[in-house]
Design goal:
With about 150 residues, the chain is mostly beta strands. It contains one helix and five strands; from the N terminus they run H-E-E-E-E-E. This is ACYPI000983 protein.
Length: about 150
């Protein structure tokens, strides 16, 4: 009986220990660290125009170094249209984007021609197997008779 009481007490203590306050202070994981450097304005842009892979895209972005960012990017979609995204971001309004889709085939884009797969011709004829010969079962077929 004493063993049962010890096991019961251990289970109760384990259950209550889940709700106990930790012995250490909680960490502030989302505290914003102060930058040791001054913000720097920047400006960049790039573009890609690869006719072999139909990879046509560009991006440009500007920042004043005080939290305001303005930029745009564009890419050529598979249907020949161009997607243009113009965005701004700042500490007051957050990130705001305006997406535009320009229909049509820009820069002479044509979807790649896919060659149809060649008809498959096997190098050898299919093997001819004879149907297996099975003998009749050696036991009688089951007979079902209702019991009512």
């Amino acid at each position: 009986m004493a063993v049962k009481m010890i096991i019961f007490a251990a289970c109760v203590a384990t259950t209550l220990a889940q709700y106990a306050a930790p012995a250490y202070p909680a960490q502030h994981a989302y505290a914003q660290a102060e930058h040791a450097y001054a913000p720097t304005p920047y400006n960049f842009e790039y573009s890609v125009n690869d006719p072999h892979t139909y990879d046509v895209k560009s991006q440009s972005e500007y920042s004043d170094g005080n939290g305001y960012v303005k930029g745009s990017y564009s890419l050529l979609e598979a249907d020949g249209s161009t997607r243009v995204v113009e965005y701004t971001a700042d500490d007051h309004s957050g990130f705001n984007a305006e997406v535009k889709k320009i229909e049509g085939h820009s820069q002479g884009y044509k979807a790649p021609y896919s060659v149809p797969a060649p008809a498959y011709k096997p190098a050898y004829s299919a093997p001819a197997y004879s149907a297996p010969a099975y003998s009749a079962p050696a036991y009688p077929a089951p007979a079902y008779k209702p019991a009512y």
